[in-house]
């Protein structure tokens, strides 16, 4: 494949980055913005700053494409997904290089696995859509025969964040393609080069014109125009709670899948396998520099083992090599942007003010090309009134808060604002199940990292929490992105 993705030092920037109705074009008012590398601070490309007018053109293209695409046989839609998966794998080195340069994650350890996972996402959608069964339902009326069928909802607005810039879009684009929806996709500005690189693959795989449309630009402009557009039927959004709530209002009445923030907790009882627990906490807190919605952002630990567990996690933090994403030895890259680093500073300062102790890390690494290099941080004695206990930090942090008995844990689980992913460590299965059943999180991992997830498993926020609406993952997303239609036939009419 001849790549058109711009990355300075590699290729000339492509001037037209909006993909609408199958053609590449500039934004309506010709404005652009610069893609900046979080690791060097240098410009790595130029992107189009789209407008509401561009979104409108994209919605019209998606609407026009929907009429035919919804009728394309499901086996052919699955074949498109298979071709995308194949092309992603053939171009994995290029895609991973773009992800690593644009997002900041380590090339070999994280960007490449993310790209490979995205291929799996398209493969899964191709396979699962062939099992998206309806039902035949027995009825009282002897003349009627009733069945249900799943149909695409129509035009989707999909707004995605920057932390997994190929894989999170795939969570929506693959099932949309498989089920016959069409899409206006608004990627996060800080990883829009990744979006262009993925869209190039979709084009080469033969996604029909207008079925997927890419509009880059500011979320508050193009994202808002897309979710609120009167001719958009449904919305898929992954991002923060604040934006998610705003979108829920702007898209009121439309079908919505909202994957929002989370902050654990991971709960460790004194009888747990502490070495494994420490490894899991380090993995869940420091992978992707902690910029994962299911990260171990709050660790509730039985008081008698707090010091031991803290020391084990701190030792693992110190083993991490913070460095440039393209360096094969790097096991922790820079944060994607200043906002996350600033929030980390605030959260740590607040916790320390309230009495927490910094075992390792605690600030930005000196002498780096940008201020985004954050040391992996382990805290103990974090009190429950610390900001980070309630809010999402989204950086490389493992904060330990002691507890004395299970009643305290169960109470804490009920009062948490977030409800996305949690983990519990104990050798007592009864206790593990009590905690797992009490957690309001959409997923609970017993004796594993809170981030454990495979693409086909249901994932999402618990009701009554602020972590979102609906479930993504395999068949769940296919169901969420389709309408269930009931078809009744009266035999007497034939
Ligand atoms: P964010 O600030 O909510 O932004 C997400 C996307 O929404 C960006 O592209 C943003 O564009 C856009 N946006 C902003 N305002 C908008 C508006 N009014 N209408 C439509 N779109 C708008 O989130 P983030 O900080 O980039 O991403 C991190 C968050 O995502 C974390 O909270 C994390 O937990 C969450 N997340 C959740 C999951 C999950 O599966 N549950 C997975 C990964 C991440 P701009 O950048 O231009 O504002
Ligand atoms: Mg943002």
TrEMBL record:
The keyword Hydrolase does not apply. Pfam families: Aldedh. Keywords: Oxidoreductase. Residues 24-487 form the Aldehyde dehydrogenase domain. InterPro entries: Ald_DH/histidinol_DH, Ald_DH_C, Ald_DH_CS_CYS, Ald_DH_N, Aldehyde_DH_dom, Aldehyde_DH_Superfamily. PROSITE patterns: ALDEHYDE_DEHYDR_CYS (PS00070). It comes from the Bacteria. This is Aldehyde dehydrogenase family protein. It comes from Georgenia alba. The lineage of its organism: Bacteria, Bacillati, Actinomycetota, Actinomycetes, Micrococcales.
């Amino acid at each position: 494949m001849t790549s058109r993705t711009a990355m300075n030092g590699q290729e000339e920037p492509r001037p037209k980055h909006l993909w609408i109705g199958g053609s590449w074009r500039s934004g309506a008012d010709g404005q652009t913005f610069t893609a900046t590398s979080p690791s060097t601070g240098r410009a790595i490309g130029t992107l189009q700053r789209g407008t509401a007018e561009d979104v409108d053109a994209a919605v019209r293209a998606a609407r026009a494409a929907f009429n035919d695409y919804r009728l394309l046989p499901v086996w052919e839609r699955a074949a498109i997904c298979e071709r995308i998966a194949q092309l992603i794998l053939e171009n994995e080195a290029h895609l991973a290089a773009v992800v690593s340069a644009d997002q900041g994650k380590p090339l070999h350890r994280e960007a490449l696995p993310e790209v490979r996972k995205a291929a799996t996402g398209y493969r899964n959608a191709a396979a699962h859509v062939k099992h998206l069964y309806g039902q035949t339902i027995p009825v009282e009326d002897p003349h009627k025969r009733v069945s249900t069928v799943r149909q695409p909802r129509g035009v989707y607005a999909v707004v995605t964040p920057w932390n997994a810039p190929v894989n999170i879009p795939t969570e929506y684009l693959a099932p949309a393609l498989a089920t016959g929806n069409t899409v206006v996709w608004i990627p996060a500005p800080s990883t829009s080069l990744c979006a262009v690189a993925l869209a190039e693959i979709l084009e080469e795989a033969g996604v029909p014109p207008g079925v997927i449309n890419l509009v880059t630009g500011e979320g508050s402009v193009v994202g808002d125009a897309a979710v609120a557009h009167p001719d958009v039927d449904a919305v898929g959004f992954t991002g923060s709670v604040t934006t998610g709530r705003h979108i829920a209002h702007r898209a009121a009445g439309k079908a919505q899948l909202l994957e929002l923030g989370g902050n654990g907790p991971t709960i460790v009882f004194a009888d747990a396998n502490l070495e494994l627990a420490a490894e899991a906490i380090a993995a869940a807190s420091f992978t992707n520099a902690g910029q994962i919605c299911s990260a171990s952002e709050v660790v509730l630990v039985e008081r008698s083992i707090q010091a031991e567990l803290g020391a084990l996690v701190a030792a693992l933090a110190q083993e991490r090599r913070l460095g440039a994403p393209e360096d094969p030895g790097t096991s922790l890259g820079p944060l994607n942007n200043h906002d996350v680093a600033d929030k980390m500073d605030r959260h740590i300062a607040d916790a320390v003010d309230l009495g927490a102790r910094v075992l390792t890390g605690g600030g930005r690494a000196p002498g780096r090309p940008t201020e985004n290099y954050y040391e992996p941080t382990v805290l103990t004695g974090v009190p429950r009134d610390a900001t980070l206990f309630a809010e999402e930090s989204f950086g490389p942090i493992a904060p330990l808060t002691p507890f004395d008995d299970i009643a305290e844990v169960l109470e804490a689980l009920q009062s948490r604002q977030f409800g996305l992913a949690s983990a519990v460590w104990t050798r007592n299965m009864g206790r593990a199940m009590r905690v797992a059943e009490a957690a309001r999180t959409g997923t609970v991992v017993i004796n594993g990292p809170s981030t454990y997830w495979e693409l086909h498993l249901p994932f999402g926020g618990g009701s009554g929490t602020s972590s979102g609406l609906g479930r993504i993952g395999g068949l769940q997303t296919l169901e969420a992105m389709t309408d269930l239609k009931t078809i009744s036939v009266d035999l007497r009419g034939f």
